[in-house]
Amino acid sequence: MSAPAGVLRVLSLAVLGVGAALLGGVYAVAVLDRVVGRAIARVPLRLIDAAVTPAREAGLLLLQRRTVTERPDAVVWALAPALLGSLAAAALVAIPLSPALALPDIRSGIVYFGAAMAMVMVAVYVHGWSANSVFPLIGAYRFVAQALSYEMPLALVLIAAALPAESLSVSDIVRSQTGAWNVVRQPLGLPLYLIAGLGLAFWGPLDFPDAADLAGGTRAELSGAPLLLWRAARSAVLVAVAAMGAAAFLGGWLGPWLPGAVWMVLKTIALLVVLLTAGHLVARVRLERFVVVAWTVLIPLALVDIFVSGLLALRGAGR
Amino acid sequence: MAGSRRATLRNALARFAAGAPTRVFVLEGIDAPDALDVLQLRPDITFVDTPRSATVLLVAGRLPEAMHEPARRAHDAMAEPRATIWWTLAPDDGAMLPFPDATVVPAQPNGSPAAIVTLARMLARTQAELLCAARPSEPALLADVDPAPWRGVGPYGQGGAGMTGGVPYGRPLAGRAPDRDGLELDQLPVRVGPFFAPFPAGLVLDITLQGDVVQEAIVPGNAFVASGGDGSPVRVTGDAFHAALSEPVRIADLERARARHHLRWLARMLRVHGLDALGHRTLALAASLADSLPRGALGDVGALRRLLERTRGLGWATAGVGVIDPRLVTGRGLGPVARAAGLSEDARIDDAAYDQLGFAPVVQEGAGERTRHAVGDARARWRQRLGEAMQSLELAARAGDRRTGGEGRPIEGVRGRSSDVTRDSPSAMLLALLPDLLLGQEWGDAVTTIVSLDIDVREAGRAPGAAPLSPPPAPQPSGGMDGMAGMAGMAAKGDHTEHDHATGQM
Amino acid sequence: MGRGGDRVLSDLLFWVAGAAAIVTAWRVFRADSMVRAAYWLMASFVAVGVVLVLLDADFLGLVLLLMMAGEMTIMAVFMVMFMMNPAGLNPMMMVHQHRTSIVAGVVAFLGLAAVGLFGAFPVAPALSAPDTTARLGRELLGDSMLIFETAGVALLATMIGAIAIASGSGRYGTAADGSVEPPAELASGETP
Questions:
Q1: Is pLDDT of B502 > 50?
Q2: Contact A148/C63, CB-based, under 8 Å?
Q3: Nearest-by-Cβ selection for A286 from B49, B445, B486
Q4: What span, in angstroms and rounded, lies between the C-alpha atoms of B361 and B338?
Q5: Residues 6 or more apart from A255 whose CB is under 8 A from it?
Q6: Hey, is the C-beta of C50 within 8 angstroms of any chain A C-beta?
Q7: DSSP alpha helices (H): ranges in chain A?
Q8: For the whole model, what pTM was predicted?
Q9: Which end of chain A is less enclosed by CB atoms within 10 A, N or C?
């Protein structure tokens, strides 16, 4: 078939597939968050409640009117949640569900993921700035400080995961784990990635822009559909983080008995549960402390991770 | 036809969405019913931390005059559809409420569970009616106008003298001031109002921010003190500690109330640090102590303490934050704050009844002791209160029918020493410490410090000369949250004719 | 033919990206809000990154996107810090010497266009399926290793130094002590 039709087919597959994955992922985050929260709070929870309440809350927010602050940057304020959501969707494009159910491979998948996740800083900063209010503004600036700190460890551990594969493509990274998963070969990788991932999705201990001590931070002035979109976009970024972690460190679609796609989904859900539990058990750290730790501890550890991984790759190549 | 189909769709969505937890923003006033935390524990109610996304405004207690303007602004900040419910012990005092359309719900002094259920159902019904448009949304109370019109004067349409003058829309342009690195950066004066969610109820601070660093914090007065009033304290009725000043009270009840208070405070502390689930668990423990001492209470609190210490998260968030020099708190009867700084001060030491129980105060490491943690920081304070709560539960279990109090001696209250003689309450003394304590701290640390001090603004009115609330420093916008000023980088208060803006900047 | 359809598509994408780069670059100077100006510039860089990806330099294009996100945010932060009207709320003339700059811009455009149209570029056939990332890697770790490794380590040291300076210990002490300038000490006999 002609190239434009082929491109159109890939494009529609991308939009539908990623859209469905994202919607399912966002809903799963809402349900899992409620389940994990109730378990930690030692409150009994009916599963049917956990499954339906996020939908009810979404409906309520859809029926609420959006608020208007004084002289906001209206266009940017309206676009920022959509931008955050599309960045999460763009990141998911690079992550294959299984060899059969994957979009055409992106050659520099890791770099593409890094670029999409770097733009998250833009989305959150602009979201806090454009509301013309004190607490969102403070949240936005905090996120800039946090983002600059977690970006390097995030990039370095993903590069370390790419070294054994000798390729930047995520599918090749998954295939390189047929012998042993990266979580085993590079023990430093997954913990560092999860910490940086929590910062990227500004969740739990690293939730500085939307913090409770700012009365909600960048979402303090939101209501109605923009609030729903912002919360969904934030969950979408968490899903993208978990999916990349599953692909790069937990072997993606590899695994016995079950089809690859199911393994990928299960591993993503496992990482989501880990991230959500960390969010409910670890208090929000001090930002200054986090910046210092990121630059003085996490980056050297990530460099050690690359060094060890490179050494192993060289030994493997030399053999 | 399409219009009616849309209407039926919308109605179906409204009925579906009405089952969601009611989004409530609480305005706490004088005499806020004690059962507010029981309401918070209910799964069909969510207390949100900003009025923007709330559906129902719950006014708990009476609001003094100084809080009426911020209350109106909080009401207008709510997104439509919205409604107000007034839950108070004294519903006849209509002057104490600025909302003409509010539904009044009388509260019971003893807070029976049935009354709470009724109130929760009423909140849910209100939200359902609002969503289904069966009940009109309340209109805005304040006019949505600029404080001052904009009139350009200069050659390019700017106002005022020259390029740097002018007050667009009533918001002065940013002034600059040196920051902690010797740079000149913009300053933002903000009034963080009486209903700011992380703060204690009614606390108002005039904070000058540079970025998120507090450059100056002033307590502009007490919102609970009426102008022209005598600064008399406002007390929650039915307090066991107050009763102990005049008559003997069972030690078991006293200690149970103390444990309950400390656990409620810990729940708030956990919430401010993002641990909603653990905060819920702590609040549930506190609520179980309201009327009696359940058997597993001590074990549950112990498990909570082990969890908090094992995950270390709260320790990282509070270590080294808000350090109070022990010399500042010596001998002032500041209770847990003093004991967290290593001082062994407790009015219960002199009490014979406690002596029989073998009471020894819980004290954190003090100055001079070998410890790798800072002395008298926020971490010490939450560990102190958690330890005191466990000690109180243990004492309450062993106390039997022993009684204390009523002999005119000072009683160890939950915040410090309280007595019949009029003196500064612990909260008043802690409020006086705040400006120096918050200087130079980042916002997160400042909030942690304030929450860790456990200030009750209602009791701080006892200080002689406690001033009523002064008006805010800069024109505050309508339809916005408390304490917002305009943008233009960071707007600043006052006039800036004395600031010499370098022309080289142009 | 598939190949022809491919080329039409990539040509179309190139022209769209090029036009977007120019239009968003023009918008930088028409925006009154400094944050918007910074992000219009980032949009221009995004378009340039798309062009790089079309030229099969996908690694370079994506790294450009990655870097520009952070850099334009830093630029926005600095512009807000140093300008007195960063949100454009105060209606004033936000540009200076605009006639001179328009003349300079037109002259530069004409010069570059002349180079592009009349310059004699070397003729070299494009590779059919280049693995530009691998070639880039071999260049970075081969002939140009000294330059790039030196620059990389120097940049990392600079970043860490900047973070250390900007940390909680201000110039006058730690934040916990209030970090305020100590009061001026007067010599005996002086009055303030």
A1: no
A2: no
A3: B445
A4: 11
A5: A263
A6: no
A7: 3-40, 47-63, 74-93, 109-129, 134-162, 170-175, 182-185, 189-200, 225-249, 260-281, 287-293, 299-318
A8: 0.91
A9: C
